[in-house]
Design goal:
about 425 residues; elongated
């Protein structure tokens, strides 16, 4: 099996194979009478909301389902799923400030497990990522407490820029929180004063809050039935997105994954940012979402002290989505050359695995022949072009020689004429 780390999203700019329709929710849609089931679905749907006033711009996100999907796809422990979920939330909020398919990626590379965490997102509502634990991590000894040695790398792929805009800051503390790493990056590298708060909450197995309410009111039975249906629909949606072969979603999942990002606008003072930060830290976004059943817009309003000047710009549905295809892998394999491709074919190395989504792609004999034929034709074409260039150079050299000989003859004739 070959594992290919497809970096097309980082180095191929903004060229993609799949057309995307942006899933915006209009904020001016007139209110309609909707069932509690639909309202609950909209409330719990993974989404990122952008808003602003004259002092700040805001991005608030619920990315719970995407975090659980990444956990299932990569078979992560719950603690690793929390780290990857937070990183995906952070890049999704940063990408929400961009345009169309401009992209944000962030990764933490270090010498202590997890040794590599990566996430990337684009403005239109796609996010993906992975987490890797090393085989031989450094371990603490009784006489030594080790610190993490690593980096936090933040990249932007923007229209009009040929190369990604990258920033790197050091990661030295052993325990990762992701919030701390993002904030350190903002404080050290970002030109705009920013504040980020990321949260996760584990799913509780006890349902005492619902079991203690033994009310015989028929409306309660209807609501309970609808909530059960909502949970059923959400699980079915996860299974469809994962698209795996009879893989079951485990019960050890995240009940909430999300956060808020605030960046100042020109003329905003640091004191105003600190006041808003102090108010936000009084609340838990997870509690507001899970216990008080608030929507993300309502939570944003609470965190901003119900400031009437805060205007919601857009709401975008977000999904864990990977654009990997067999064609993109074949394009990467072509760079290995004919001899390496023949070696892969001879040793039956036809299994490809995407590191972002753990999806498998398989090369057929026709795929190997197609790649080899493509490289052979490309080689013939290059040889043909080189031959034509050599012929042109030879003609040019011959012409230069003839001109030189003619000049020499003319000089001899002139010399003889002068002598006579």
């Amino acid at each position: 099996m070959m594992r290919l780390f497809s970096k097309s999203s980082l180095f191929n700019g903004l060229n993609f194979t799949k057309s995307i329709s942006v899933r915006y929710i209009s904020n001016n849609t007139p209110p309609t009478s909707e069932s509690p089931k639909i309202l609950e679905y909209k409330r719990t749907r993974d989404q990122v909301i952008n808003a602003h006033n004259e002092k700040f711009r805001f991005s608030i996100i619920n990315l719970t389902k995407a975090a659980n999907i990444s956990k299932t796809k990569h078979n992560l422990s719950i603690s690793d799923a929390q780290l990857l979920g937070k990183l995906m939330s952070g890049v999704s909020m940063c990408a929400s400030f961009l345009s169309d398919e401009e992209r944000i990626s962030a990764q933490i590379i270090s010498d202590i497990n997890p040794t590599h965490i990566y996430a990337e997102a684009i403005h239109v509502g796609e996010v993906r990522g992975f987490l890797i634990n090393g085989d031989t991590p450094r371990l603490e000894t009784p006489d030594e407490v080790i610190n993490r040695k690593g980096i936090f790398q933040f990249s932007k792929i923007l229209y009009g820029h040929l190369k990604p805009i990258q920033s790197v800051v050091a990661v030295e503390e052993k325990d990762l929180t992701i919030t701390k790493e993002f904030q350190h990056y903002f404080d050290q590298s970002e030109q705009i004063p920013s504040f980020i708060q990321l949260e996760t909450r584990l799913k509780s197995n006890n349902n005492s809050s619902s079991n203690n309410n033994n009310n015989n009111n028929n409306n309660n039975f209807v609501i309970n039935d609808e909530i059960q249906q909502i949970e059923k629909d959400q699980i079915e949606e996860q299974q469809q997105i994962i698209n795996s072969n009879n893989d079951l979603i485990d019960n050890d999942q995240l009940e909430f994954n999300g956060g808020i990002l605030i960046q100042t606008l020109p003329s905003t003072t640091s004191e105003e940012l600190n006041q808003l930060k102090t108010n936000i830290e009084k609340y838990s976004i997870a509690d507001l979402f899970l216990k008080e059943k608030k929507s993300m817009k309502e939570i944003l309003s609470i965190l901003t002290n119900n400031d009437p000047s805060v205007e919601v710009i857009s709401t975008i549905f977000v999904d864990f989505y990977c654009r990997c295809t067999l064609k993109t892998f074949k394009d990467k394999i072509l760079t290995l050359g004919i001899s390496e491709i023949k070696h892969l074919e001879e040793h039956n190395h036809n299994e490809l695995k995407c590191i972002y989504c753990n999806r498998y792609h398989y090369l057929k004999d026709t795929d190997f022949k197609e790649m080899i034929n493509h490289l052979e034709q490309e080689k013939e074409q290059k040889l043909k072009v080189l031959k034509e260039i050599e012929q042109e150079q030879q003609k040019e050299q011959e012409q230069n020689n003839n001109n030189t000989n003619n000049n020499n003859n003319n000089e001899k004739i002139n010399d003889e004429t002068k002598k006579e």
